[in-house]
């Protein structure tokens, strides 16, 4: 089991901002997962990886793939209090789900 | 309501590594919070800030303060599969809790 969190590289998020957006996505996708997936992921060490996407369109395409695969996922928009315009899409989390299923969606992306 | 996540600056975590450790801490502290705190934080937009700490000792001192204040909190150790030695303490999350209580613990730290 793992969770992959994909963050945009094209909007100049600072390190702290990026980390907060990754955490938002992680929690939201986690909460949309079923109880079995949650439990299994937690007992397996809560594996998380953070990956790169070049833009908004790529993020939405990945989200659509996750939806088609039936995987828990969440797209995060920034409230825009700092750094970014309100509503800017920043991150996507996919999983927790079996690794091979997550890899079908995010397997081609580079590690952040 | 807010959650503060404190990350060490002295262990050379890469951006993706740091974001994953922040997300671990965020989820773990969230799960240790009571249902009212969770609900209130979620309805208020899940405010999160990411802050800096200079080392392990500072992180443990902050965790001890959070404990004394009765705030949900979590200290994260890295499994050490990559980058860091196994068991390295990386991050601390405090909250979700009322902002003024979180600030008693983390109010003097710099934004990441």
Automatic annotation (TrEMBL), chains A, B:
Reaction equation(s) it catalyzes: an N-acyl-L-alpha-aminoacyl-tRNA + H2O = an N-acyl-L-amino acid + a tRNA + H(+)
EC assignment: 3.1.1.29
Keywords, in A-Z order: Hydrolase
Pfam families, per the entry: PTH2
Family, as annotated: Belongs to the PTH2 family.
Physiological role: The natural substrate for this enzyme may be peptidyl-tRNAs which drop off the ribosome during protein synthesis.
PANTHER family cross-referenced by the UniProt entry: PEPTIDYL-TRNA HYDROLASE 2, PEPTIDYL-TRNA HYDROLASE 2, MITOCHONDRIAL
Name under which the protein is recorded: Peptidyl-tRNA hydrolase
Organism: Halomarina halobia
